Amino acid sequence: MNNFFRGVLVGVGIGLLIAPMRGEEMRRLLGERLQQLRDSLPENEQLNEYVQQVSHRVSQTASNVKEYARQAATRVRGTAEEPGGLAQKSAQDVSETARSLKPSTPS
């Protein structure tokens, strides 16, 4: 990209050197074209409004991503707790089964 701009500058320089217009005419023409370019750019107010819109959308997207991350973390926690709960219930079932299979000892 840097080479592109260098090429543009060299081309402009060569064009100015071999231009058929006098310096005064060239400066006037360049001034007019620069003014046209300035007029075609958005006003500061429009630019500020656009920046605010983009900023709002970025912040909204960040909030959405945070919410998705929170939901994912909650699901992961729930999934991690589920096997623990199942293991505890299985251990209880095994204990109950073991107790029920023990022969009762007469007192």
Quick overview:
The chain has 107 residues and is mostly helical.
List keywords for this structure.
single chain, 86% helix, 107 residues, rod-shaped, mainly alpha, 0% strand
Q: How does this structure look, described?
A:
The structure is a single chain. With 107 residues, this protein is mainly α. It has a domain of 25 residues. Helices cover 86% and strands 0% of the residues. The model has no long low-confidence stretch (mean pLDDT 78).
Beta strand count: 0
- N-C termini distance: 96 Å
* Number of helices, where a helix is a run of at least 4 consecutive DSSP H or I residues: 3
Helix % is: over 70%
Percentage of residues in strands: under 5%
Structural class: mainly alpha
Mean pLDDT: 78
Would you identify the regions where 5 or more consecutive residues have pLDDT less than 50? none
Order of helices and strands: HHH
Largest sheet: none
- The best one-word shape is rod-shaped
The Cα radius of gyration reads: 38 Å
Task: Furnish the topology, listing elements before pairings.
Layout: H1 2-17, H2 23-40, H3 44-101
